[in-house]
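Why should sequence recovery work at all? Because a backbone constrains its sequence more than one might expect. Tight turns favour small or flexible residues, buried strands favour hydrophobic ones, and helices have their own preferences. The token representation captures these environments compactly. In the example below, the structure is given first.
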């Protein structure tokens, strides 16, 4: 078989991916084997491949490929999330570019555009994952808006509503004025921002007196409905029962008393705006205050905003502060650092807003999920440190706001049959809703035209929390064959940033709807950062083109580059040089394969002792390393598992074994050694395959003609045997001896083609098991053991043993003596300067301990070197 001289990733990756797909190696159906199941964290349908996806999906592919090799029925379910906020924003932007406003369309018309957009762009990221080598069962690809997935979501909503766990409430919510929808608390990111504190004077009705309040949002004064003071504050006690006048609005508002007001904070007077602050809403409810909402849904001011109607809130802030100053209401401003809530999706500043929303009660639902992770350890987090984060979220959980004011998503299955807010029924479909409404109203003539379905859609996470069950039909058909076979899944690989959003909620759903965990292990990756530790993002321009990296370094090179620096839970400092390192590793293995296949094999040759010992050593080394690799996988230390594999193949196999067994120049190799090397190479490929699937399959298929049933992707994982630790220890000694020989050859310019003799002063009864290897790799003609130092020889030490190379015929004795005497003179001078420094009490007493220790080490090294030089000189004279 013709083997190309260079490994060209771009030409072979597509070939093998197509081969794997054609032979359906990724396909999984229930059978008699133990299943190993992963469900992909579904990327947004709007998404394109970025570095976080690359890391996360590479780890998943490593786990699924290893499970496949280990004989499990490996099933990796791919799919995408409809991403309500992000997708609707993209569709709205696209329509605007065409001059179409969302408000000009009916819901049905808008959804047609949304589906059109999804069908055009929705599969992009999954196709990109194929370039990375992801071996998902693509026949199982799911989308959270598929008919069966949507039906699962609706059924769960109805079930929870019927259990009394879902309710509708008028609450203060987090409002995203850009997406025009409410957000859960977890979707709000708080940022410290520099702003101003505005001190404003409110006139007291019927007098010349004024009270001063401080606010960071002067535009909200137009929604004020009270001034609040502390009943114990003597400064303001005389104002009880009086009214204040809202600047500009000229509305009279009551002055109320409440212990909520901190006497020591600010001026001790608090403006109360129940429509735009959660704490103010609490005060408003308690004191029966009017609620004046001054904002439209896009955060422009409405009719309550007076002459500012239609202007954006931040534009109004500038204009109103100027007007307040001109009219004498603004006393002063101060710089003020404030925590501002922003939307995780759109980055817009969140507006607290009163709204009718749907909520899910969480207090009871959460209990089994807390127990499973923190008490019973049915589910394990890797790294374990994230248990504290999990505990914090779960023990402080609030009711989940599950409604969103969006059209793209699962429309809430509630139908209104009357004018009142409570005149609704909840059902899986309209026919059932009509039947319920007729029963409640007693009106048999009620028709579908009399019903109006809730406009809101469900939070995207309300479908995502069902993912491990719904992809196998476990909600609609709880006893079907697939859910019983594949569920619970085995491992979940995701980022810690969605530990609560998604992971915790999946655990809650698993126990609520199936009475068991959704997965056993949760592997939390770190965030991908640049060399300056900045999170990679498009806005910073520090995120490389993922597909560009694959084109430049090959998918295998990128996978290795990412994984070598990505310990679980720790952020990955990405450097493109890591991908170059991965590409270099691929080239190293390719060249090793070309070397082995270039050897001519002779059936008649006996196996040399050096080859026999080398292969015995590598088998032991491989077995012990394989045990280490398995242990690292068990601990989800994927980076460490790869590093162990990397060192085994680069150092032990390529750099040592092949050197120890390769035949002399233009000489054949014996058949036994050749076959054993090929077998070991194949075992290496199996262990490496999960990390570098394309390279390994290419080499595997070049080794010999294989049937589809013999492809590497489905070959059996190697078995670790009992390694000979004594042989491994002997090799470590032999390697040091070989290194010593090579150093002397280099320093004394002794060509490798010139054979040398080696005598060992057997101080420690050095093991002789690998002498044949020392003779071969050091080109040693005769290796003898002695109890006396030989005369006229160069020497070096390995541990307690001394090794001597006779110089007769190997070096010019006169020149060597001259060199050694010169080196001795220099070293003695260096020693003198170090000892002078150490004899200086002032230096020893004042210098840092580590500096003094370093000087003492220099002294010890110099003394040892002088002794060795003197011994070498004595042997030469």
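From this structural description, the recovered sequence reads:
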């Amino acid at each position: 078989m013709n083997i190309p001289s260079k490994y060209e990733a771009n030409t072979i990756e597509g070939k093998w991916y197509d081969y794997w797909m054609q032979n359906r190696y990724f396909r999984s159906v229930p059978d008699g084997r133990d299943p190993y199941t992963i469900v992909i964290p579904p990327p947004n349908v709007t998404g394109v491949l970025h570095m976080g996806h690359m890391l996360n999906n590479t780890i998943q592919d490593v786990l699924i490929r290893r499970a496949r090799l280990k004989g499990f029925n490996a099933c990796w379910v791919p799919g995408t999330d409809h991403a309500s906020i992000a997708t609707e924003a993209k569709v709205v932007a696209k329509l605007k570019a065409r001059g179409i406003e969302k408000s000009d369309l009916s819901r049905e018309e808008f959804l047609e555009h949304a589906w059109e957009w999804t069908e055009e762009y929705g599969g992009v990221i999954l196709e990109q994952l194929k370039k990375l080598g992801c071996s998902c069962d693509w026949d199982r690809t799911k989308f959270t808006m598929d008919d069966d997935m949507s039906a699962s979501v609706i059924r769960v909503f109805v079930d929870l509503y019927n259990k009394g766990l879902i309710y509708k409430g008028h609450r203060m919510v987090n409002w995203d004025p850009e997406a025009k929808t409410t957000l859960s608390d977890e979707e709000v990111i708080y940022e410290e921002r520099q702003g101003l504190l505005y001190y404003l004077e409110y006139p007291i009705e019927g007098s010349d007196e004024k009270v001063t309040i401080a606010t960071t949002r002067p535009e909200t004064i137009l929604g004020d409905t009270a001034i609040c003071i502390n009943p114990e504050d003597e400064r303001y006690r005389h104002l009880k029962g009086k009214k204040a006048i809202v600047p500009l609005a000229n509305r009279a508002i009551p002055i109320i008393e409440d212990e909520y007001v901190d006497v020591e904070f600010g001026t001790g007077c608090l403006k109360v705006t129940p429509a735009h602050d959660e704490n103010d809403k609490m005060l408003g409810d308690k004191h029966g205050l009017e609620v004046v909402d001054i904002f439209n849904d896009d955060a422009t001011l409405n009719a309550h905003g007076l002459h500012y109607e239609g202007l954006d809130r931040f534009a109004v802030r500038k204009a109103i502060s100027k007007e307040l100053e001109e009219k004498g209401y603004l006393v002063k401003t101060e710089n003020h650092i404030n925590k501002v809530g922003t939307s995780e999706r759109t980055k817009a500043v969140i507006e607290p807003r009163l709204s009718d929303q749907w909520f899910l009660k969480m207090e009871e639902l959460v209990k089994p999920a807390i127990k499973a992770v923190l008490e019973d350890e049915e589910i394990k987090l890797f790294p374990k440190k994230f248990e504290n984060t999990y505990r914090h979220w779960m023990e402080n959980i609030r009711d989940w706001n599950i409604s969103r004011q969006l059209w793209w998503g699962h429309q809430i299955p509630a139908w209104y049959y009357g004018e009142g807010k409570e005149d609704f029924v909840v059902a899986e479909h309209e026919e059932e809703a009509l039947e319920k409404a007729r029963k409640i109203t007693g009106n048999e003539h009620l028709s579908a035209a009399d019903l109006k379905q809730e406009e809101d859609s469900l939070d995207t996470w309300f479908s995502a929390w069902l993912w491990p069950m719904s992809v196998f039909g476990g909600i609609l058909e709880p006893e079907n064959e697939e859910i019983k076979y594949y569920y619970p899944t085995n491992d979940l690989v995701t980022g810690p940033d969605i530990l609560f959003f998604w992971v915790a909620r999946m655990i809650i759903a698993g126990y609520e709807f199936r009475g068991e965990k959704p997965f056993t292990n949760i592997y939390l990756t770190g965030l991908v950062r640049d060399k300056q530790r900045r999170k990679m993002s498009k806005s910073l321009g520090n995120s490389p083109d993922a597909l560009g990296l694959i084109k430049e370094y090959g998918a295998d090179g990128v996978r290795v580059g990412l994984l070598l620096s990505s310990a679980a839970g720790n952020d990955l400092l990405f450097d493109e040089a890591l991908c170059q390192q991965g590409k270099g590793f691929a080239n190293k293995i390719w060249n090793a394969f070309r070397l082995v296949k270039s050897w001519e094999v002779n059936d008649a040759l006996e196996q040399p002792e050096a080859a026999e010992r080398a292969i015995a050593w590598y088998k032991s080394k491989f077995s012990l390393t394989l045990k280490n690799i398995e242990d690292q996988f068990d601990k989800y230390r994927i980076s460490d598992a790869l590093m162990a594999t990397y060192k085994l193949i680069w150092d032990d196999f390529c750099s040592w074994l092949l050197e120890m067994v390769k035949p002399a120049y233009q000489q054949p190799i014996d058949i036994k050694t050749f076959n054993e090397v090929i077998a070991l190479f194949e075992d290496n490929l199996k262990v490496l395959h999960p990390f570098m699937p394309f390279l390994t399959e290419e080499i595997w298929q070049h080794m010999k003609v294989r049937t589809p049933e013999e492809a590497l992707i489905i070959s059996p994982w190697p078995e670790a045997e009992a390694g000979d630790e004594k042989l491994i220890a002997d090799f470590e000694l032999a390697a040091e001896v070989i290194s010593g020989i090579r150093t002397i050859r280099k320093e004394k310019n002794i060509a490798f083609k010139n054979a040398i003799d080696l005598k060992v002063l057997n101080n420690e009864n050095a093991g002789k098991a690998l002498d044949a290897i020392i003779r071969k790799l050091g080109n040693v003609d005769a290796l003898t053991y002695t109890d006396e130092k030989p005369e006229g020889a160069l020497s070096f030490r390995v541990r307690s043993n001394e090794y001597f190379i006779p110089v007769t015929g190997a070096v010019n004795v006169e020149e060597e003596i001259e060199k050694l005497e010169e080196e001795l003179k220099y070293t003695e001078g260096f020693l003198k300067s170090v000892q002078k420094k150490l004899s200086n009490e002032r230096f020893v007493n004042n210098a840092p301990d580590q500096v003094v220790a370093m000087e003492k080490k220099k002294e010890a090294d110099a003394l040892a070197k002088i002794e060795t030089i003197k011994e070498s000189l004595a042997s030469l004279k």
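A few observations help interpret the result. The longest strand covers residues 188-203.
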